[in-house]
């Protein structure tokens, strides 16, 4: 009824700053967005829904939300939001495109180094009471070729950080200006060249119909034997079954993986392999990134509910 505070449905855990920014003129409700049976009825009178990557705001969810004005993604990727269906319904979609780029790039570097030196396996062995120095023979990063697949905001930050290791940087990105890559000290190559030349490969692409399955069995067969692969972008860009097979055969030496085709995932074929370092989609999970993402989208929600146009950042 008129005069009632608009309902903001928080469907995933967000930074505490979100509540401060939303203020007192909205009614805050919480739901577990991954639980469809809870989410759909909770959307019935929501004016805004705030999510991270675990909540699917698809056509069905939108249809269950007749009062919805804004979908707020506290992060970057919009692969879990049907933006076209939202637009058709006049529902605004906002995200925070730079909030977690540093955190994502740092996590990719962490996975790369952890995979190169098998840190989690060595840690687990030692905690298990075994002092095994000869089992864990790593490789150096310095002097090697690092291939960056996707030289967008995160790919660039990753490349800049890896440059400190004195590596040769190559990248595949059909959209970047060659001048920009040269400025960054990165040589642009085709995907095939990148696969053939790299000692380390890190993926930094959004999930779209074009990028799903980009690195599958055929591509893994082209890599240098023993290559180390990192994916902190999206699951499905590197085919998990094909990667597991390549890790088993030794074609891929090690992998650092943060994202999975299905999430949450507790039974990826990668989890049983010794030469993998795996994390549960933690690329954006830092205090700083969550604070930035939460604050930015909470402000957009407030403005959207006030009827003003939204600042994009
Ligand atoms: C993103 O696209 O921003 C990430 O998936 C971050 C998140 O986990 O929310």
From TrEMBL:
Per the UniProt entry, the signal peptide is none
Q: Where are the transmembrane segments?
A: none
User: This protein's superkingdom?
Assistant: Bacteria
Gene3D superfamilies in alphabetical order:
NAD(P)-binding Rossmann-like Domain
Entry annotated with the keyword NAD: yes
Keyword set for this entry? Answer: NAD, Oxidoreductase
Start and end of every D-isomer specific 2-hydroxyacid dehydrogenase NAD-binding domain? Answer: 109-283
Claim: Oxidoreductase is one of the keywords in the record? yes
Query: Record's Pfam families?
Result: 2-Hacid_dh (PF00389), 2-Hacid_dh_C (PF02826)
Show where the D-isomer specific 2-hydroxyacid dehydrogenase catalytic domain sits.
Answer: 8-311
Q: What does the similarity note say?
A: Belongs to the D-isomer specific 2-hydroxyacid dehydrogenase family.
Record's protein name: Hydroxyacid dehydrogenase
Q: Which organism's genome codes for this protein?
A: Blastococcus brunescens
